[in-house]
């Protein structure tokens, strides 16, 4: 039997909101948020630009939908258990998500209306801190310190455009041009970066995160323990 044209024609995947958002995320991941336009997105999907507006009313709603999907990839902290591992797991997950989607940290910071997934992430952190025994004021400060570390660290990484340079070559050239007697600390810093990493070293983000969590934990110490720690520190300083 001879196949008809209808039988042999390729089946086009129907356009949907989820497909539009995923294509937009892929485009932003590959080329940055500045490269994302409705026209370019339509070209990538093989449709007319006007057809996108049936699924996302405009660029602002498109970005909100993208952030909703990306933020939903983060692990939400669960209150009531061991608060430090919960917050650590959640923060590391958020950092990993922002590393996979470098545009998202800046976009989330500049978006006036938080998406639902962002609100759930915030609620997880805040409720976990309160359930652990932190006061409302301590919880507020701790949340902002943690959020600043997650978002700020990602923005710092992405601002350096590390994927556009040969870091090892740049490091060696910089070290070669620096007088060691004037910049001993900087040269040692570069040498540490060039040396093989300890496989147990989780990196600078985890290092800073653990310092924050350890600092939070001290707030929960009884006043007597805090006073004893302070007195010990003063004696050591005088010695």
Structure overview:
- It is a single chain.
- This protein has helices at residues 5-8, 17-31, 38-45, 49-52, 59-71, 83-100, 104-110, 116-132, 136-159, 167-177, 184-194, 204-219, 223-238.
- With 239 residues, it is an all-alpha fold.
- The termini are far apart.
- Mean pLDDT is 85; it is low at 5-10.
What are the defining features of this structure?
239 residues, mainly alpha, Arc Repressor Mutant, subunit A, Tetracycline Repressor, domain 2, 2 domains, 13 helices
Question: What topology does this entry show?
Answer:
Elements lengths: L4 H4 L8 H15 L6 H8 L3 H4 L6 H13 L11 H18 L3 H7 L5 H17 L3 H24 L7 H11 L6 H11 L9 H16 L3 H16 L1
CATH architecture label of the largest domain: Orthogonal Bundle
Decide which structural class fits the backbone: mainly alpha
CATH fold description of the largest domain: Tetracycline Repressor, domain 2
**C-alpha end-to-end distance:** 98 Å
Radius of gyration equals: 24 Å
The total of helices stands at 13
The total tally of domains equals 2
User: Helicity level, as a percent range?
Assistant: 55-70%
CATH class of the largest domain: Mainly Alpha
């Amino acid at each position: 039997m001879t196949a008809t044209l209808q039988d042999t024609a390729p089946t086009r995947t129907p356009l949907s909101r989820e497909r539009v958002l995923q294509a937009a995320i892929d485009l932003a991941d590959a080329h940055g948020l500045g490269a994302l336009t409705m026209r370019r997105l339509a070209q990538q999907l093989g449709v007319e630009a006007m057809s996108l507006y049936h699924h996302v009313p405009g660029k602002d709603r498109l970005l909100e939908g993208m952030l909703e999907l990306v933020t939903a990839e983060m692990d939400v902290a669960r209150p009531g258990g061991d608060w430090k591992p919960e917050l650590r797991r959640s923060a590391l997950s958020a950092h990993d998500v922002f590393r996979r989607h470098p545009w998202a940290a800046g976009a989330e910071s500049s978006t006036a209306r938080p998406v639902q997934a962002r609100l759930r992430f915030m609620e997880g952190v805040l409720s976990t801190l309160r359930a652990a025994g932190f006061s409302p004021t301590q919880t507020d400060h701790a949340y902002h310190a943690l959020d600043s570390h997650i978002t700020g660290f990602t923005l710092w990484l992405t601002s350096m455009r590390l994927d556009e340079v040969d870091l090892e070559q740049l490091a060696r050239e910089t070290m070669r041009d620096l007088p060691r007697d004037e910049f001993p600390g900087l040269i040692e810093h570069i040498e540490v970066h060039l040396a093989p990493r300890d496989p147990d070293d989780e990196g600078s983000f985890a290092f800073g995160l653990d310092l924050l969590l350890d600092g939070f934990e001290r707030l929960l110490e009884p006043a007597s323990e805090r006073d004893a720690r302070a007195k010990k520190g003063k004696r050591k300083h005088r010695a």
